[in-house]
């Protein structure tokens, strides 16, 4: 990686949180007082929700409990692998031409009489 300018928002948020600088993600227009502990808790929960592997993400019922303060976030969020993989693929595919995909979709509409 060539510095913060190459980081995606998710990767940047994870890096700041991991370095103990998660509060740098807070928009100053929110004003104060805000609960710094609550902000850090929300960041941690958000990072858990964007884990690369679905089995590492909490279920929505658990997220609701965590946001309500009834349950502590666990486990520790992992570095987003999909961000790292994308950054690696950008480096390796920069000399290749543009890539595209074709997605076919069939829609059926059923109308009653």
TrEMBL record:
Biased segments, Basic and acidic residues type: 84-93
Protein name, as recorded: S-locus receptor kinase C-terminal domain-containing protein
Ranges of residues in domain S-locus receptor kinase C-terminal: 75-113
Region (Disordered): 69-113
Gene3D superfamilies on file: Transferase(Phosphotransferase) domain 1
Any Pfam family matching the protein: DUF3403
Source taxon at top rank: Eukaryota
GO molecular function list: protein serine/threonine kinase activity
Composition skew (Polar residues), residue ranges: 96-106
